Amino acid sequence: MSDKIAVIFPGIGYTCDKPLLYYAGKFAQEKGYEVVRVPYGGFPKKVKGDRKKMEKSFALALDQSREILKDLKWEDYDEILFISKSIGTAVAAAFGKEKGLKVRHVFFTPLKETFSFGVTDAAAFHGTADPWAKDQDIEEGCRQAGIPLYITEGANHSLETGDTAKDLQNLILAQKQALDFILGGRNKG
Questions:
Q1: Which pLDDT score, from 0 to 100, does residue 144 have?
Q2: What share of the chain is helix, strand, coil (3-state, %, to 5)?
Q3: Quick one: DSSP state of residue 74?
Q4: In this model, does residue 103 exceed pLDDT 60?
Q5: Mean pLDDT across 70-82
Q6: Residue 38 burial (CB count, 10 A)
Q7: Which residue of 58, 76, 149, 165 is 20 to 30 Å from 69, comparing CA positions?
Q8: Average pLDDT over residues 32-40
Q9: Calpha distance 78→88 (Å, rounded)
């Protein structure tokens, strides 16, 4: 058993086997972290833009996370890393706060709500064409929390631009930046 754990919190349609989370998880595992994936689901349809459905999705994901992670003995770990995507960023932040854990976070495409949980030890990744989160909200949330923000110009909520070659380059860059943060400690970037 490792003394380091990385927990992966996916998005609504962005599962743990999609590129941002898949490779971040592989890097964490290569660096000695025990990797645990939180495969929650059962979300309502057409969540985007619907506040009530978003709140319901958050509550579902948080409840399922509690259940999936209930048997972990957090005190056995010297390092706790949460890698998350979209709604998973808010779920990871809420879960860490609720449990009183000292967590380092990698937020891929966080939502505005993510920053309401007082997280400061994190790195965030955002695309300027993300229809789920306004640039200003993410920039302000990161600025207030002192979190480094890595911006991908013209990228959507999956940090993709539509140009496959460019998307692969951006994926490699985002993974390198995330790994640098994971290995480098608090707010390095």
A1: 97
A2: 45, 15, 40
A3: G
A4: yes
A5: 97
A6: 22
A7: 149
A8: 97
A9: 23
Q: What is the Rg, in whole angstroms, of the alpha carbon atoms belonging to the chain?
A: 15
**What's the token pair of residue 30?**
């290569």
111: buried, middle or exposed (CB in 10 Å: 19+, 13-18, 0-12)? buried
Q: Tokens 């890698």 appear where?
A: 83
pLDDT given at position 189? 35
Q: How far apart are CA 39 and CA 159, in angstroms?
A: 21
- Closest to 33 (Cα-Cα) out of 55, 3, 67: 3
Residue 9, both tokens: 């919190």
* Superfamily in which the 4-184 domain is placed by CATH: Alpha/Beta hydrolase fold, catalytic domain (3.40.50.1820)
| Helices first, then strands: H and E counts in the chain | 5, 6
Q: In the block, which residue shows the tokens 């964490």?
A: 28
Q: Are strands 149-152 and 34-37 parallel, antiparallel or unpaired?
A: unpaired
DSSP letter assigned to residue 127: E
Question: Is the CB of residue 157 less than 8 Å from the CB of residue 131?
Answer: yes
Measured over the CA atoms of residue 8, residue 11, residue 16 and residue 21, the dihedral's sign is: negative
From the list 68, 85, 69, the residue with the least C-alpha distance to 77 is 69
Q: Is the pTM of this model over 0.85?
A: yes
Q: Which comes out higher in pLDDT, residue 60 or 2? A: 60
Q: Which of 29-43, 44-58, 74-88, 172-186 has the lowest mean pLDDT?
A: 172-186
φ, ψ for residue 61, nearest 5 deg: -65, -40
